[in-house]
Amino acid sequence: MLKRISIQHLTLGMYLHDFCGSWMDHPFWRAKFVLKEPKDLARIKSTSIEEVWIDTSKGLDVAAGVRSVSREEADIQVETDFSLLENLPPLVVDPPPPPAPARRQSRGKAPASMHNELLAAATICGEAKQAMVSMFREARMGKAVNPENARGLVEEISDSVTRNPGALISLARLKTADDYTYMHSVAVCALMVALAKQINLNEEHTRSAGMAGLLHDLGKAAIPLAVLNKPGKLTDAEFAVVQSHPAQGYDMLKEGGAVEDAVLDACRHHHEKMDGSGYPDKLKGDQISLIARMTAICDVYDAITSDRPYKSGWDPAESLRRMAEWTKGHFDPRLFQAFVKSIGIYPVGSLVRLTSGRIGVVTEQGAQSLTSPKVKVFFSTKSGMRIPPDMVDLAVPGTTEKIVAREDPEKWKFPDLNELWSGFSGQAW
C-alpha cells in the first residue's frame, strides 16, 4: 500500500517509492529502493523535500498514530481541486516592474489550426535551438550575453503561443536528452508567455516573462557538462555545484548589462519556494517576485515532462497531478491553478482512456472546458488491439465519451505516441 508521509517519519527499513518533489530538489537519481544506509536517510532529510511516498508492502510501515495519506485520498483531493478550476475567478496580480520599451509591435497573431501552428513551431524551435546553443557557448567562453537576439526570439515564441497555445509548448517538450539544456529554455519561455496571458499581464510584462523563461537557466553554462549530464547519482559536492546555477546566471546577466531587473530576479530566484526551503536566498512567500514564482512553476513542469540523461520524463497529465501534491509550500497555489488552466488538465500529449475503453492521446485543448479536449483514439482495451486512429472531440454536444482515466505511457509503450499527436515521425527541428 502506498502512503504519503512527512520526511521526519521516514526511517531505515522503509521502501521509498517516490519523492514528493522534482528530482531537481534532491541528489538521488532514482527512487524505489529500501532505505538501508543511514547516510542515505540523512541525505534525504537534508534536502528541501518535505514528503515522500512509501510502499508498506515492500518495507516497514509508519508507527501507529503517525499521520499518512493514501494514494486514493491524494487522488480524490487532486480531482476535487481540478474540478473547481473552471469556476475560479480570474487571478488578480500586481504586475512586475515595467521592462524596457518594446522593440517592435507583435505580429502574426491570427489564430491558427493546431496542424499549421505545429509546422510553424517546428521552424521556430529549430531557430531557437541554434540561438540558445550559441548563447550558452558564448557564456561558457566568458563572453557577455547580448540580450538583443533573445528579444526577437521571445517575440516569435510569443506570437506562436498567441496563435495556438498548445503547439510550440507541446513540441518543445519533445527535446532529446542531448538538447535538453537549450530547448528547456525555449519551452519555459513559451510556458511563461501562456501563463502571463492567462493571468492577464499586459503585452510588455508578457514579453518580460518570456525573456525570463528564455534566460532563467543561463547559469548552467558555468556547470561542467560532466556534472550537468551525469547519468548516475550526484555526490553532495556535485549537487551543490548544480544548485549554484541560479546565482551564476544572475552574475552573468548582471555583468552583461541590458537585462531588466525582473528577468535578473527570475534567473536568481526560480528555485525559491513559498515555504522558504528553496535556494539560493531562502526567500519566502511574497518575498519572491511574481515573475520568479511564475518561472518556478514553468521550469519544473518542463523539467519533469522531458527526458533527461538520467531519467525519463513523466506524462504531462501525471506531471500536473504530482505538482498539485507539492503545492503546499512549493508553488504559489493560485499561480499554479492559473498554470493548469493555461495548458489544460490533460495537456497535449497526455495518454487517456475514454468511457468506451478506447485509449487515445490528447491532441488539442477544448475551447470551453478543461475536461473536454480533442483526443485521437487508436487502441481498444476491449480487443487489446490497435484500431484505426479516430479524432474524438469531447466538447461536441451529444458526445457520450469522456475521459475516465489517465494511462501510463510506460505501461503501454506505444512507440509512435508522439507522432500520433504531433504528426512528426522523428525530431521536429
TrEMBL record:
This is Putative nucleotidyltransferase with HDIG domain. SUPFAM superfamilies: HD-domain/PDEase-like. The keyword Lipid metabolism does not apply. Keywords: Transferase. It comes from the Bacteria. The lineage of its organism: Bacteria, Pseudomonadati, Pseudomonadota, Betaproteobacteria, Burkholderiales. Residues 89-110 are annotated as: Disordered. Residues 159-355 form the HD-GYP domain. Pfam families: DUF3391 (PF11871), HD_5 (PF13487). Residues 92-101 have a biased composition (Pro residues).
